[in-house]
Amino acid sequence: MRTYADSWLKVEEGLGGVRPVLKGSADELRAQFGGLLAALAPGYPQPSGSVKTEDGTLDAIKYRIYIPTGLGDGGGLPVGVYYHPGGFVLGQSEADEVLCRHIAENTKSIIFSVQYRLSPEHKAPAHLQDTMKAFEWANENATKFGGDPNKMYTIGVSAGAGLALAVARKVTLGQSTASRDAVKGIVSFGPYTLHQDNIPQAYKSTYTSHEENGENVPVIDATTMRQFFELAGLSPEDRDYFPALDQGHHKHFPPTYIVTCEFDPLRDDGLVMAQSLKAAGVPVKADHYDGLPHCFWLFPSLPETEVFMKNAVDGVKWVINQM
């Protein structure tokens, strides 16, 4: 029998016995997420002086660059182009700020964080267009902010984790102004890779998380994901957005780090993607968290959040070391 980690149940107790599950219209989802983050914000660490930030705009796409300081003039640093979570509907948050700073500081890597357009105001392929444009610009201009254009990787959480895979796929297909080998690695925390209405036969026997985590699991359940996909205007057959559909191209992916969680409707999205990449001969590092929900690291009081943050650094370092 599947059971939640005791530490997670204590988090729910601290929230008044309420299990946080995002549901409803775009406005309702945004209000719920904003309220949850407001409750969690006091537990987030304050920024240290070891990372500086630079803000800018690229054709109305806002971005923030996180640059580790005090490294001297040792040449260009690796650059991770970061895509935030939120089901294509919710914007960036303080939690993204914490994660980006943590990775930049502890991996000595520059993080280029992108605020892509959101749905339902902007339907697909707006998100993918923005994330592609941001990667291409960062690759072309990496040296201007201390980065090495030959050490670029995509990185993201949830919807952003799927976009990190999707951008890498398009670049390796040659559908980009960047060279086919410009993406040297992928870091994918809790990605979507398939639509629940279009699971290939090869995956059906192992892809059960949308049923097992269909209702009333924390943060998001399968109903929430269906709502996100509908608001974004995604087609279940769209290979550009659902990279696990394009098995024939997986052999061209760069080394990939994937994180999955047991009580997550997207658990098997990550697992089948990792399995397919491995079968295609791609180096893969994977971390799985039993007893915990989607994006549990949003909750700073959870002991496993510290474990995740350490493992995230190790995963990014592993990707960088593969370059």
Automatic annotation (TrEMBL):
Residues 81-297 form the Alpha/beta hydrolase fold-3 domain. InterPro entries: AB_hydrolase_3 (IPR013094), AB_hydrolase_fold (IPR029058), GDXG_lipolytic_enzyme (IPR050300). This is Alpha/Beta hydrolase protein. Pfam families: Abhydrolase_3 (PF07859). The keyword Hydrolase applies. It comes from Phialemonium atrogriseum. GO terms for molecular function: hydrolase activity. Keywords: Hydrolase.
